[in-house]
Amino acid sequence: MSRRIDNHITWDTFSQGLWRDNPVFVMLLGMCPVLAVTNSATNALAMGLATTFVLLASGGLISLIARFIPRQVRIATYIIIIATFVTMVDYVIQAISLDLYNALGAFIQLIVVNCIILGRAEAYASRHRPLNTLVNALGMGLGFTFALLCLGVVRELLGAGSLFGYDLFGPRFQPWVVMVLPAGGFLVLGAWLLLFDWLKERRDLTRC
């Protein structure tokens, strides 16, 4: 019986960030990278995976050492830990692709102050065991990546007629230039928020 309960809790912990408490579509957190780097699916995926790695690495380490961190300096300690892993990601992306590194710009470094990561560290990692923390961080990271891809795919398809850099519609396609501009990010985000809100209301009505 205890094994079933643990599995249920683990799945609930994982799925929390994917849908019920999606950091973008439900909690509206991390809006700067959501609007700034989703002008292409490649940028969106890279930012999502980078954030997921930092969530996993920092959350796991904080969960392991939280009991040894004095309360007076816990936030400063969390930021130092997060900044360490962000620096690692920054150098890895720079080594893999300079074009991608330049496209993401300062938003890689700004992962340090992303409220999703700091919030998970304070509200979850510091109060739960490493396994549950890693599962929760993975769900949150994948939920964030999913949200970025939702915007990035739509904006690149309509704004450039391509997906992950591959042309899909041929030379006759007339791109919607506004979609790769900041205004396009707000328009697509608003459309996705309307869709998720409608799905949530429909689900609540079904349960009733």
Give the SSE layout:
Layout lengths: L1 H19 L10 H6 L4 H25 L8 H23 L1 H7 L10 H9 L6 H31 L1 E2 L2 E2 L14 H26 L1
Antiparallel strand pairs: 1-2
Helix pairs in contact: 1-7, 3-4, 3-7, 4-5, 4-6, 7-8
Characterise the protein shown here:
- It is built from eight helices and two strands, in the order H-H-H-H-H-H-H-E-E-H.
- The chain is mainly α and 208 residues long.
- The chain has one domain.
- A hairpin with a 2-residue loop joins strand 1 (162-163) and strand 2 (166-167).
- The longest helix is centred in the C-terminal third of the chain and has 31 residues, at 130-160.
- It is globular, with a radius of gyration of 19 Å.
Strands ordered across the widest β-sheet = 1-2
Largest sheet features = 2 strands, antiparallel
Number of domains: 1
- Summed over residues and divided by their number, the pLDDT gives a mean of 89
Rounded to the nearest angstrom, the distance between the terminal CA atoms is 29 Å
What is the oligomer described by this structure?
Answer: single chain
Helix content: over 70%
Q: Total number of helical segments? A: 8
Structural class: mainly alpha
Rg to the nearest angstrom? 19 Å
Please provide the ordered H/E string of secondary-structure elements: HHHHHHHEEH
Cα shape: globular
Low-confidence stretches: 1-8
Strand content: under 5%
The strand count comes to: 2
